[in-house]
Amino acid sequence: QPRVFSGIQPSGGLTLGNYLGALKRFVDMQDEGNFETIYCMVDLHAITVWQDPETLKRNTRELCAGFIASGVDPEKSILFNQSQVPEHAQLAWIFNTVARMGWLNRMTQFKDKAGKNRENASVGLFAYPSLMAADILIYHATHVPVGDDQKQHLELTRDIAAKFNHDYGVDFFPITEPVIEGAATRVMSLRDGSKKMSKSDPSDMSRINMTDDADTIAAKLRKARTDPDALPSEVKGLEDRPEARNLINIYAAFADMTPEQVLADVGGKQFSEFKPMLAELAVAKLSPISAEMSRLMQDQDEIDKILRRGAERAREITAPILAKTYDIVGMVR
Ligand code: TYM
């Protein structure tokens, strides 16, 4: 059976980009029923940039609440945090010996996150993609749903799998398919249509947080930057209009429509008319999720229990794959 793996970092609150680009797609793939689905809070990735320990714990639990409130069912899917399944880090070490410095040097996320002061970036931040490849390959996952910004990391995952197979003369790790689909694979900042919506943007007005209340969501969308023209009736007309395109994509993703279908309905409208429609749709979809998140957050023990149970189920898959990997590599056991 094809197997899906994906992860989200508990390094801050969830944004609309995480929801539309990833979480909502996770739920779709779970509910389609064709896949075994495995979803992870990647706490070991989060600490590649220093996290306050108490905040990290809170963010991990809140992220778990976000998964469940969005529709990930911990019975149907395996849901856990990365550090409770040690095989991720163990396989990552093997992959550190497979990946080449040159490959990791080309990673744009590393360059962005390390900034100018590369000498001061953690070794973990540099090796981040090996751990990500291990996350995926320790399950022999075949499909990985992500937003567009993870594409380069997934290509590296394929390179690592292929080099491992080649170096040891085996056909052991699968060459994974990225699943970058839907209208919202790249949700942009509400203040600048050329920048990705991100939890690290200093302006809170640039993003919608999953925990924002209805008034805040409406206000952020009302104030979102746009151009002065009316909406076009075809997707072609969105070229060179990144802000307009972003709002149409967001609408389409919420409504489970294509941008073409949305424009067929709203083409010709001014933003003054379209923005309230978008706000109404966004609030209708997001407020039940944020209400459920706060409800789930009341019972921390229950969340911790779900994560522990998820980790146990995950280890049933990861332990034999790590053992086989060690055999292939030549570790005496
Ligand atoms: P992270 O935590 O930055 O983001 C989680 C998911 O949300 C997607 N995403 C977006 N999608 C559309 N528009 C946006 N503005 C936007 N911002 C974020 C991301 O593409 C991602 O799918 N390295 C990963 C976490 C990870 C992982 C993995 C993913 C670790 N191991 C294994 C898949 C498989 C990351 O930092 O995602």
From TrEMBL:
<comment type="function">
    <text>Catalyzes the attachment of tryptophan to tRNA(Trp).</text>
</comment>
<dbReference type="GO" id="GO:0006436">
    <property type="term" value="P:tryptophanyl-tRNA aminoacylation"/>
</dbReference>
<keyword id="KW-0963">Cytoplasm</keyword>
<comment type="similarity">
    <text>Belongs to the class-I aminoacyl-tRNA synthetase family.</text>
</comment>
<keyword id="KW-0547">Nucleotide-binding</keyword>
<feature type="short sequence motif" description="'HIGH' region">
    <location>
        <begin position="10"/>
        <end position="18"/>
    </location>
</feature>
<dbReference type="InterPro" id="IPR002305">
    <property type="entry name" value="aa-tRNA-synth_Ic"/>
</dbReference>
<feature type="short sequence motif" description="'KMSKS' region">
    <location>
        <begin position="196"/>
        <end position="200"/>
    </location>
</feature>
<feature type="binding site">
    <location>
        <position position="187"/>
    </location>
    <ligand>
        <name>ATP</name>
    </ligand>
</feature>
<keyword id="KW-0067">ATP-binding</keyword>
<dbReference type="Pfam" id="PF00579">
    <property type="entry name" value="tRNA-synt_1b"/>
</dbReference>
<feature type="binding site">
    <location>
        <begin position="9"/>
        <end position="11"/>
    </location>
    <ligand>
        <name>ATP</name>
    </ligand>
</feature>
<keyword id="KW-0648">Protein biosynthesis</keyword>
<dbReference type="InterPro" id="IPR014729">
    <property type="entry name" value="Rossmann-like_a/b/a_fold"/>
</dbReference>
<feature type="binding site">
    <location>
        <begin position="196"/>
        <end position="200"/>
    </location>
    <ligand>
        <name>ATP</name>
    </ligand>
</feature>
<comment type="subunit">
    <text>Homodimer.</text>
</comment>
<feature type="binding site">
    <location>
        <position position="135"/>
    </location>
    <ligand>
        <name>L-tryptophan</name>
    </ligand>
</feature>
<dbReference type="GO" id="GO:0005829">
    <property type="term" value="C:cytosol"/>
</dbReference>
<dbReference type="InterPro" id="IPR002306">
    <property type="entry name" value="Trp-tRNA-ligase"/>
</dbReference>
<dbReference type="GO" id="GO:0005524">
    <property type="term" value="F:ATP binding"/>
</dbReference>
<dbReference type="InterPro" id="IPR024109">
    <property type="entry name" value="Trp-tRNA-ligase_bac-type"/>
</dbReference>
<feature type="binding site">
    <location>
        <begin position="17"/>
        <end position="18"/>
    </location>
    <ligand>
        <name>ATP</name>
    </ligand>
</feature>
<feature type="binding site">
    <location>
        <begin position="147"/>
        <end position="149"/>
    </location>
    <ligand>
        <name>ATP</name>
    </ligand>
</feature>
<keyword id="KW-0030">Aminoacyl-tRNA synthetase</keyword>
<dbReference type="GO" id="GO:0004830">
    <property type="term" value="F:tryptophan-tRNA ligase activity"/>
</dbReference>
<dbReference type="InterPro" id="IPR050203">
    <property type="entry name" value="Trp-tRNA_synthetase"/>
</dbReference>
<keyword id="KW-0436">Ligase</keyword>
<protein>
    <recommendedName>
        <fullName>Tryptophan--tRNA ligase</fullName>
        <ecNumber>6.1.1.2</ecNumber>
    </recommendedName>
</protein>
<dbReference type="InterPro" id="IPR001412">
    <property type="entry name" value="aa-tRNA-synth_I_CS"/>
</dbReference>
